[in-house]
Amino acid sequence: MVSSETPAEKPAVKPTDEPVPPDPAAGSGTATGPATGTATGSGTATGSGPATGPATGTATGSGPATGPATGTATGSGPATGPATGPATGSATGSGSDDEGRFGEPGRPLNRRSPFLFGFLFGLGAILAYALFLGVRNAASILVLIFIALFLAIGLNPAVERLRRWGLRRGLAVAIVALAVVGLLVGGLIALIPPLVTQTTELINNAPDTIESFRRSETVNELIQRYDIVNKVQSAINAGTVGNAVGGVVGGARLLFGTVFNILTVLVLTIYFMAAFERIKETGYALVPGSRRERVRLLTDEILTKVGAYMVGALAIAILAGVSTFALALALGLAYPFALAVVVAVCDLIPQIGATLGAVVVSLVGLASSITDGVVCIVFFIVYQQIENYLIYPNVMRRSVKVSDVAALVAALVGVGLFGVIGALVAIPMVAAIQLIMREVLVPSLDER
C-alpha cells in the first residue's frame, strides 16, 4: 500500500550577508575573493585548492611569492592559479633573487679619519699637478680650440639668421663656412704678396727711416733727450728683427705652421658651428633639472652678446684698416697694405689698440714729411672720435656693456695671456662674468 504522506519540506535557508570562511584547499585553483590579510612569508605562497571566499587570514608559504594571495593557503606546493581579488595585505618577504649579488656592503668610511683626509688631499694634489702639466704641454692646441670656439660663437648669429629664413642648420653652416673661406682666400691673395714685400722693405729701410728722424728738426730734440735713435739702431744692428723673420728654413717653418694653424682653426670652427646646438644641450644636461631653464636663459644671453661683440669688433677693425689704407694712398705713404693690416689688428685690442695703430702710421708719415705726419695725427684724432662716439655705440648697441676700467684691465690681461686673440675675447669674458654676478651672485647675497 502506497503511503499518501508527503515528505516534509525542508525549511528554506535564509541568505545571510556574513562571509562564509573558506576551507583550506589541497590543490591548485583560482583565488577569486578579496584578500585582506598580511603576507609574512619569505617565499612562494602555495595552496592546493581553490579559495572562493574573502580571505582574512595569513598566508605563510615557504617559497618566493609570485602573485597576490586572496585566500588562506597552508600547503607546501607552489600556487599556480591566478589570483583575481584585490590584495590589501602587506608583503614582508626577505628579499629578491638579486640581493647579495655583489656581496655585503662594508662599513662606511670615517670621514674624520686623518689617514683618509691625507690620502684624498694627496690624490687631489697629484691630479691638479697632472692637469697643470697637460694644459701646459697642450697649450698651443688649447689656444686653437679656444679661438675656434669663439669664432663659432661669433659666426652663430649669421647661421641663426639663415635658419630663420627657412634653411636647415647644416646648409646654413655650409653657406657661412664657404663665405668665410672665400673671404679668407681672397684676402690672402690680395694682401699677402704686397704685405710681404712692403713689410720686408719696411724692415730693410728701418735704418734710413731712423736717419730721417735724426735729421728732422721737429722731433730731433725729443729723440736726443731720451736717446731713442741709438737704442733702436743698436737693436736693428744686432740683427734682432732679421733673426726673427730671416732664414729660408725659419721662413718655411713659419709659413707651414701658420697654414696648419689656420686650417685647424677653420675645421674646428666649422665643426663647432655644426654641433653648436648639441654642444649646448649636452652642457645643459649636466645641470640639475630645477636650475636648467635658468642656466639655459643665462647661457643664451651670454652667447648672444659675445657673438654680437665679436662680429662688431671685427667690423670696426676692418673699417679702421680700410680707412688707413685710403689715407696712406691719398698721402702717397709707403707700405699702405702693411699699415692697414697693422691698424686693423691693433684696433681689435680694446681701449689702447687704436692709439697704437695711429702712432705707427703717424711715425711713418713723419718719416715721409712733417706735413704727412701732421695730417696722419689729425686724421686719427678725428677718426677715433667718430669711432668712439658714433661707430662703436651703433655697432655694439646689442653687445656687451663693460666699464672702461674693467675693459682696460681685461685687455691687458688678455694680451699678456693670448696676444691679440686674448684681447679680443677679454671683453666678452668680463661681460659674461658681470652678467652671472648680477643675475646669480647678487640675488643670492640679497636673500641672506
TrEMBL record:
Primary localization: membrane
Keyword Ribosomal protein set for record: no
Signal peptide: none
Biased composition (Basic and acidic residues): 7-17
Region (Disordered): 1-107
GO CC annotation terms, alphabetical: plasma membrane
Record membrane topology: Multi-pass membrane protein
Compositionally biased intervals (Low complexity): 25-95
Transmembrane segments: 115-132, 138-159, 171-192, 254-276, 297-319, 325-346, 358-386, 406-431
One GO BP: transmembrane transport
Compartments, as annotated in UniProt: Cell membrane
Superkingdom in the source lineage: Bacteria
Keywords: Cell membrane, Membrane, Transmembrane, Transmembrane helix, Transport
One Pfam match: AI-2E_transport
Family, as annotated: Belongs to the autoinducer-2 exporter (AI-2E) (TC 2.A.86) family.
Name of the protein described by the UniProt record: Integral membrane protein
